[in-house]
Structure formats: structure tokens, C-alpha cells
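Priority: medium. Attachment 1 of 2:
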């Protein structure tokens, strides 16, 4: 129960920060990418602030033996770059650049009652479903080929 409440509180603080910084507004994000037009550097400052807070937070948290609400830290172990990571990152970046929404800004924007965040969320979910289908088909095909050999 405490984990759920803390996750809710953290998400709430994050969502409020996204809303206050204007990052739930796709025009603000898109203007960051419009270098030769209506360029708005505020996204750079929001990201920079997040990096500073994260760097300090990581230093403090890793001094503890374990997280407050878990037995250990869950850190990624893979360090390689594969086609799925590069391809997925590219698709994510293109979608962010075209729509102005990343998931962090999209979720709070869903509460604004506008259609654009709903369309963007639908596209993200459709992309996730399409990936699972294609990945399952590739895995099934690979397994069938291995069984035939």
C-alpha cells in the first residue's frame, strides 16, 4: 500500500511539474524544435533542471544500502545497442517531434479535455501493439525455422 501511495505521490508531483513548466502543451515543445522560426528554449531549461535534480538524487539514493520501499535497486544490466533500441528510439523521437507529445507530457495533458492528447496516446498504444505483434511473429518464425533445421 505504501509503495502505491508513494508512486501516486511521485507521479502527481511529476505531472504538476510538467503542467507548470508548460511541457504538456505540444506547441511549446514543437517551438523548441523550430530553431529558425519561433524557437523557445524553455524545454532545454526544463531538461537541464531535471538532469541536475536527477544527478543529485542518484548520488544521495545510491549512498543508501537499498531503496526505502524495496529490497534492492532495479538497474539495467545491458549496455549494448541493438536494432530494437535504436529503431524504437528513432520512432519515439520522430513521433515526439511531429506531435509535440512525449509520454511524460502526454499523460497530464489527457486531463485537459482536448482531442490531440487522446490521438497521440492512441498512436502510442497502437505502436506498442504493432511492435508486440511483429515481435511475436518474428519469434514464432525464428522458432519454426530452428525446429525445421
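Attachment 2 of 2:
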Amino acid at each position: 500500500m505504501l509503495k502505491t501511495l508513494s508512486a501516486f505521490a511521485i507521479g502527481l508531483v511529476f505531472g504538476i511539474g510538467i503542467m507548470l513548466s508548460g511541457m504538456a502543451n505540444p506547441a511549446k515543445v514543437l517551438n523548441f524544435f523550430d530553431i529558425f522560426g519561433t524557437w523557445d528554449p524553455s524545454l532545454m531549461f526544463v531538461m537541464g533542471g531535471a538532469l541536475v535534480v536527477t544527478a543529485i538524487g542518484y548520488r544521495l539514493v545510491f549512498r543508501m544500502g537499498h531503496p526505502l520501499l524495496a529490497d534492492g535497486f532495479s538497474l539495467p544490466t545491458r549496455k549494448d545497442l541493438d536494432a530494437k533500441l535504436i529503431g524504437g528510439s528513432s520512432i519515439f523521437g520522430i513521433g515526439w517531434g511531429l506531435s509535440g507529445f512525449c509520454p511524460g507530457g502526454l499523460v497530464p495533458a489527457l486531463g485537459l479535455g482536448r482531442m490531440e492528447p487522446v490521438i497521440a496516446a492512441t498512436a502510442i498504444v497502437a505502436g506498442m501493439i504493432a511492435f508486440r505483434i511483429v515481435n511475436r511473429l518474428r519469434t514464432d518464425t525464428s522458432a519454426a525455422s530452428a525446429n525445421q533445421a
